[in-house]
Amino acid sequence: MEKSARNLPLLSLSLAFGSLIFAQAPHQQHHPPASAEEYAKILEDPGRDAWQKPDEVIRALELKPTDVVADIGAGSGYFTRRFAPHVAKVYAVDIDERLLKIAAKNAPPNVVTTVASTDDPKLPAASVDLVFFCDVLHHIDNRPAYYAKLRRALKPGGRIVNVDFYKKPLPIGPPLEMKLSEALVVDEFKSAGFRLAKTFDFMPYQYFQVFQ
After folding, report:
1. What is the DSSP secondary-structure string of the chain?
2. Superfamily for 11-211?
3. What is the mean pLDDT of each run of 10 residues along the chain (212 residues)?
4. What are the domain boundaries of the chain?
């Protein structure tokens, strides 16, 4: 069975949980940036939009104005600020408080930053309509226990969305051994009581799964 990275130093894991620890540095650099500010520059690289296709991702989710979204591994707020105009509230969740401070700068009032722990998103019970992961799941240890906490945070009928890199050699993204296959993610969520409701394939390097 594939496993997520273990025993990473706190700084590395903190940066990793933001969304894209390895994805955008040139020459496949696999060392974390020295500061949250440097990491935020990587996350916010304008070139990311071309392959991440954030606007298309938002449209595909068909969000409602009353929805509450939890952006787990929000980092500098790349997706958080794109969710905010479409929903009632966004929880920007990350284990790195420094990145969340960057995400909070000039954020609209419906964005709430939440400092999580590596094993708990710290979301209120029955508070969220959509949990969103982008390039984060492969960094979470003991995912079954984590999914149980997500289930408690979801409202009835809530969804979990996972966007992550295909498990194959790619010009961007984490090393192959860190990646999770689509089938493994489906099996893990199924074991946690979720079903795969929908998939999308419009991104060149990532799969896009919706669970209910």
Report:
1. ------S--HHHHHHHTTTTTTTSSGGG--S--SSHHHHHHHHT-TTHHHHH-HHHHHHHHT--TT-EEEEET-TTTTTHHHHGGGSSEEEEEES-HHHHHHHHTT--TTEEEEE-BTTB--PPTT-EEEEEEES-GGG-SSHHHHHHHHHHHEEEEEEEEEEEE-SS--SSSS-GGG---HHHHHHHHHHTT--EEEEE--SSSEEEEEE-
2. Vaccinia Virus protein VP39 (3.40.50.150)
3. 36 38 35 67 87 98 98 96 98 95 94 96 98 95 96 98 98 95 98 98 98 98
4. 11-211
